[in-house]
Amino acid sequence: MGSLIDKFGRKITYIRFSVTPRCNFNCVYCNSHTPEDDKSEEFTTEDIEFLFNVAGKLGITKVRLTGGEPLLRKDIVQIVEALHKVREIKEIVLTTNGYFLKFLAKDLKKAGLNRVNISLDTLREDVFKSITGVNGLSLVKGGIKESIAQGLLPIKINTVLMKGINEGDVLRIAELSLDYPVIVRFIELMPVKGSDFWRKHYMSFNEAKKIIRSKYELNFTTGSAGEVATYYKIVGSDGKIGFITPVSQHFCAQCNRIRITAAGKIYPCLFSKEYVSVWDAVKKRDESLTKELIRKSVEIKPKEHGPIDENDQDFINNMRELGG
Ligand code: SAM
Ligand code: SF4
């Protein structure tokens, strides 16, 4: 088996694959998207099978399916099945808004999905609607319960921290880790192109930690290898609470991933403007060219992204295309 090592000695074993830029939600923090993007091309199931067979030979062992909303793909179960057949891929995970999960969790599990991360920023119906544009809270809760029932464990709940919008939910969402076998992760809001939402609503993980510590004692604990979150436990609980801090403390030194879009652009970093396209190589089923292009995307991986601050113009180009 080959391996992908970048200029800074980091071994790349993980691909985040955005299977579609389309989404049924319109989250306030993810809106760098235009209607034109929805018409962009998407790899077929067969293309995906070919691409990940090649990636497996280069040392990729983990794939995260993301989007847009990955469960909008009619062939999402077949995609998981195709990835499951790749011998080298040991972990297939999915990041979803959870809206369709209740109906798909069983088939996804059967197809070989290991785990799910579900985005949930509030437990209040009206706030949910104002963040996502959709009345979907009860369906998402149903998706979480069904994923637990199907054993897609450990389930991670991803909550984007937004000052003035969901500070009031931080404690209740953290408490989910007391009541359910879930890992709750608070994510610092990142800036996307064409929006000043980030400037108005950014909240550091320390503020969320303070809110939780106002009621509970938090002890530092470890996550699994390659994790980007820092983990804590509420004393006496089995669950974990994590903080993902791309803004206040970036984790580039441990980065082991590249990102591939539905249209075959490989981005070496979420903040990269540079990409390598494998679309033609995959469509032609050209294995050696596909390998060469994946290697090239690793070669151009930057050491780190720059500091994100008030003056930074270098925001994320298109969250849905890149998969977050
Ligand atoms: N639609 C799926 C979902 O929402 O889980 C998958 C795609 S979404 C782009 C992946 C993750 O990125 C979600 O957890 C979402 O909350 C997060 N995300 C999107 N925009 C963000 C932003 N501006 N800052 C921080 N996280 C963001
Ligand atoms: Fe859709 Fe996920 Fe972006 Fe929300 S965060 S708009 S659910 S892709």
Question: Which features would summarize this protein structure in a list?
Answer:
12 strands; alpha/beta; TIM Barrel; 11 helices; 324 residues; binds iron/sulfur cluster
The Rg value, from CA coordinates, equals 19 Å
Shape: globular
Bound molecules: S-adenosylmethionine, iron/sulfur cluster
Task: Look up the CATH topology.
Answer: TIM Barrel
What share of the residues does DSSP label as strand, in percent?
Answer: 15-25%
Secondary structural class: alpha/beta
Q: Compute the number of helices.
A: 11
The CATH superfamily is Aldolase class I
Instruction: Provide the helix percentage.
Output: 25-40%
Q: Any idea how many domains?
A: 1
Task: Write a short abstract of this structure.
This protein is α/β, with parallel strands linked by helices and 324 residues long. It contains 11 helices and 12 strands. The protein has a 12-stranded mixed beta sheet with strand order 7-8-9-6-5-4-3-2-1-10-11-12.
Plain-language structure description:
With 324 residues, the protein is an alpha/beta fold. The protein has a single domain, classed as TIM Barrel (Alpha-Beta Barrel). It is 31% helix and 18% strand. The protein contains eleven helices and twelve strands. It has a twelve-stranded mixed beta sheet. A hairpin with an 8-residue loop joins β11 and β12. The two termini are 29 Å apart.
What is the element layout, followed by pairings?
Layout: E1 14-18, H1 45-57, E2 62-66, H2 76-84, E3 91-96, H3 101-111, E4 115-119, H4 125-132, H5 137-150, E5 155-161, H6 170-179, E6 182-188, H7 197-201, H8 205-213, E7 218-221, E8 230-234, E9 240-244, E10 257-260, E11 265-267, E12 276-277, H9 279-283, H10 287-299, H11 319-322
Parallel strand pairs: 1-2, 1-10, 2-3, 3-4, 4-5, 5-6, 6-9
Antiparallel strand pairs: 7-8, 8-9, 10-11, 11-12
Bound molecules: S-adenosylmethionine and iron/sulfur cluster.
